[in-house]
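Record type: monomer structure entry
Structure origin: computed from sequence
Chain ID: A
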Amino acid sequence: MIPLNESQIRASFVNASRKEVSDVSLPADLDTLDFEARDFLGWRDRKLPRRAYVVAIVDGEPVGILLRQADATPRTRPQCAWCQDITLSNDVVFYSAKRAGQAGKNGDTVGTLVCADFQCSANVRKLPPLAYVGFDAEAARQERIATLSVRAASFASSVLNGVG
């Protein structure tokens, strides 16, 4: 992912009001984040426990999304739609986002199941277990990394463009 600073992050939000953008609590470790080890930037708000944010790269540009965590918790353990890790040690929650523009003003939303604290980038970089003799774990890891970027960008694009 391309490195981003505070002003770039705040300017990237497509589904938030000016007030909501000004209230965004940026990641505490923003200055020390390793953007090369990330496929998107995601974090939870320190002040508002059910609010989170994601910035993904769509067509070379950062697209910021304000997310809201659902009140209900799943009865069974869900799988993250982005990293699709089946050996997760962390929680997966449902986040919804209002769409950008008029669609969002009309109440149109889109949702996804994602790792609660956005650990997806770390999850896809772990070597997967050997599935069979001759399984190329490194190739599988590289494919998972590439696929995560596509999934995050696809979600951001669906918020931005109102499709998907």
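Annotation 1: Helices lie at 6-12, 18-22, 101-105, 120-125, 137-161.
Annotation 2: Residues 137-161 form the longest helix (25 residues).
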